[in-house]
Amino acid sequence: MSRTDLSSGVRSMPARKVLISGASIAGPALAFWLNRYGFAVTVVEKAGALRGGGYPVDVRGTALEVVRRMGILPRLRDAHIDLRRLTFLDGDGREVASVNPHALTGGVAGEDLEIRRGDLTDALHTAVRDDVEFLFDDSIDTLDQTSHGVDVTFRGGGRRTFDMVFGADGLHSRTREFLFGPEEQFHRYLGYCFAGFTLRNTFGLRDEVIMWNTPGRAAALYAVGGSGDVHGFLNFARPEPPFDAFRDPAAQRDLVAAVFADAGWEVPGMLAAMRDADDLFFDAVSQIRMPRWSSGRVALVGDAAYAPSFLTGQGSSLALVGAYMLAGSLADRDHAAGFAAYEHDTREFVTVNQEQVGKGDAALFPTTARALEQRNAMLRNLSTVPSTEGRPAHSALTLPEFMPVT
């Protein structure tokens, strides 16, 4: 395994060995920066390969500076999706309003990025794959912290010791469960569930989103480019999360079909496509809120520590910024001081972005007829001129310059 050779010589001491669980966004970004600061990095990922495709994600505000410093901004600009419009329909399929997407998201036209999730993960992986070790089709089975490090047993049977371990393994993080116990104590349910899947683009859509609403229900078709497929999305309000369905795909399909059984527009065809989809993703709309993000020699980053939910549109940006701040905080500190600095310097940015729930695009799913009428009135009055200034929360942190240790 080779590592970047900085001309200044990053460390005179032996490289600290670290393990990152998760190879989606936060994991490879953290690997990039830790490698830059002289760490010997291993990334373990339970999937057999990088996950391609997926829904488009946003990179905004402070996160744009992170990817610029990584040198991948030009590649991401080339992959940018320029959505032309977002059209809202009523329960009968009639148009309510057609708006510029930036008017709802608080994004900055010409600056902020919207790209396929797979394009972002591929760019991150490419930036670091020659400098760190990747272990696919494997995962952490046990963690045992000792005075000298963290003893890790892998599901595949291997055993190794690391100086530190990082959980970048998402909303339902097993690393977090190892450290702090069941997810429920940190899980903040936001009152919705959703199902996403791919279906054939028989609708003539291109670079646009169409969303149908009735109180407590939404169905959307998301067309990226002129490809033969569109992303289908079904969202519905529910008082409590359906825990019994989370690990049962058949129960997920049955639940969604029951909720949308009497829906009009293109929803019946979407339900039929969902039944046959091999890429169905179902989950609750939720956040992770934790009083601390580390314990001993193990720390969490991205959704594992502070998932903001897709209602904020900030999940990928928080992952990128959090990875940068965590690695930089460790560049010239031991794990205890580094983790403390990471939490101290990053938490305010995380909190202000998690609190974006309920604003702009987060208000798209009204649960009552009156709220739906109010939302529709708001949409009709939105400006069609793209914004030149983003939401303050998106850029609420100015990235520090972390200096390598010589």
Detailed description of the structure:
This protein is α/β, with parallel strands linked by helices and 406 residues long. It has helices at residues 26-36, 62-70, 73-78, 101-105, 117-128, 174-180, 249-259, 267-276, 303-306, 315-330, 335-354, 369-380; strands at residues 17-21, 40-45, 56-59, 85-89, 95-99, 113-116, 133-136, 140-145, 150-154, 159-162, 164-167, 187-200, 208-214, 217-223, 229-237, 281-288, 294-295, 298-300. Strands 5-4-13-14-15-12-16 form a seven-stranded mixed beta sheet, sandwiched between helices. It is globular, with a radius of gyration of 22 Å.
List keywords for this structure.
18 strands, seven-stranded mixed β-sheet, six-stranded mixed β-sheet, alpha/beta, disordered N terminus, 25% strand, 406 residues, 12 helices
Widest beta sheet: strand line-up? 5-4-13-14-15-12-16
DSSP summary: helix tally: 12
**Number of strand elements:** 18
Residues in β-strands, percent: 25-35%
Rg, alpha carbons:
22 Å
What is the N-to-C succession of helices and strands?
EHEEHHEEHEHEEEEEHEEEEHHEEEHHHH
Low-confidence stretches: 1-12
How far from one another are the termini? 22 Å
Counting copies of identical and different chains, the oligomeric state is single chain
**DSSP helix fraction:** 25-40%
Shape: globular
Q: What's the average pLDDT?
A: 89
Structural class: alpha/beta
The major pleated sheet works out as: 7 strands, mixed
